[in-house]
């Protein structure tokens, strides 16, 4: 799971020409992009919580469909930005869509055409290059009566001539294989960018930090998670085959440190236990995770913090 970008020439499973391309998943916050990415890849490469604005940088998941290698880009949710971090996240989302070979717009079945979806539909024609295929994926179909889906699909297709429409449940897998197959057939011919057994274009250090951030977001108050970040400071392979991982949780205010730590350190201890178990399963070896919590009032305005989470600081200006 390294971030190597060397192309990997080769033929498809039956000796045919290979295909390789990039697909951007876009939509409102909490539309299910991370869940869909994880379902497509078959492994957890993007964090999933009930909170909105979870994904900050563009996370690449790699999928093989026959002779096609599809590199999925899980972009941050598109929303009305307020802070520098928000603006950088939205810029990253649109940049991911512009650079991709195909785009999938996710819309929540039970929410329909919200103000946010309407804004995305308005922006698509003026943002994407002409001819860029855009598929519509109506997600969370298990949450609505079946008879409501066709009218919603028709209403959305009246707004834009989508290349294809899929009714899916990212969490349960319904319709996901059809979507993957359709995308695989639309990837341009060319060599694969990644080895066949690689599922993500993210360093393990960053994936480990994202796992810890997910556990924190699930436990903390809604207003706090977006003012914290997690960084993996060191990753040391030990002689006994285990790995020692040292992480720092940066918070913006003194009062937040106590919330993250919890009474007698109970919160951060529980988070560390959950994260350690998941990291160990991911890397297939024992992990020793040590977490510190530090107050860094200006981290939201530090270019280095943006680079760490895959965003461009200048996009937030």
Model description:
The protein has helices spanning 33-41, 84-99, 115-127, 149-159, 176-184, 204-219, 254-261, 266-283, 303-308, and strands spanning 19-27, 59-65, 68-74, 102-108, 134-139, 164-167, 228-237, 243-251, 287-295. Helix content is 33%, strand content 21%. Helix 6 (204-219) runs antiparallel to helix 8 (266-283). The strands form 2 sheets. A 6-stranded mixed sheet has the order 2-3-1-4-5-6, sandwiched between helices. The protein has a 3-stranded mixed sheet with strand order 7-8-9. It has 9 helices and 9 strands. The two termini are 32 Å apart. Strand 4 (102-108), helix 3 and strand 5 form a beta-alpha-beta unit. By secondary structure, the protein is an alpha/beta fold. The chain has 2 domains: 19-184, P-loop containing nucleotide triphosphate hydrolases (Rossmann fold, 3-Layer(aba) Sandwich), CATH 3.40.50; 204-316, GMP Synthetase, Chain A, domain 3, CATH 3.30.300.20. The longest helix is centred in the last third of the chain and has 18 residues, at 266-283.
């Amino acid at each position: 799971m390294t971030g190597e970008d060397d192309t990997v020439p080769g033929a498809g499973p039956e000796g045919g020409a290979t295909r390789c391309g990039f697909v951007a998943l876009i939509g409102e916050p909490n539309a299910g992009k991370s869940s869909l990415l994880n379902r497509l890849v078959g492994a957890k490469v993007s964090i999933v919580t009930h909170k909105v604005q979870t994904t900050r940088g563009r996370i690449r998941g790699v999928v093989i469909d026959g002779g096609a290698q599809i590199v999925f880009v899980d972009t941050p949710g598109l929303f009305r930005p307020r802070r520098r971090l928000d603006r950088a996240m939205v810029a990253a989302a649109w940049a991911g869509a512009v650079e991709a070979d195909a785009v999938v717009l996710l819309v929540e079945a039970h929410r329909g055409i919200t103000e946010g979806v309407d804004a995305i539909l308005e922006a698509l024609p003026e943002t994407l290059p002409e001819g860029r295929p855009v598929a519509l994926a109506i997600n969370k179909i298990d949450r609505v009566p079946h008879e409501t889906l066709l009218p919603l699909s028709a209403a959305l297709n009246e707004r834009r001539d989508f290349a294809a429409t899929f009714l899916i449940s990212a969490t349960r897998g319904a319709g996901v294989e059809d979507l993957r197959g359709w995308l695989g057939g639309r990837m341009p011919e060319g060599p694969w960018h990644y080895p066949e057994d690689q599922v993500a274009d993210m360093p393990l250090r960053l994936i480990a930090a994202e796992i810890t951030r997910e556990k924190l977001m699930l436990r903390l108050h809604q207003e706090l998670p977006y003012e914290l970040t997690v960084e993996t400071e060191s990753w040391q392979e030990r002689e006994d085959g285990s790995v020692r991982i040292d992480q720092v949780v940066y918070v913006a205010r003194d009062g937040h440190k106590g919330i993250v730590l919890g009474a007698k350190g109970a919160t951060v201890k529980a988070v560390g236990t959950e994260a350690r178990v998941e990291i160990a399963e991911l890397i297939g070896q024992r992990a020793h995770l040590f977490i510190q919590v530090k107050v860094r009032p200006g981290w939201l305005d530090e270019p280095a913090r943006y680079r760490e989470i895959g965003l461009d600081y200048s996009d937030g200006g």
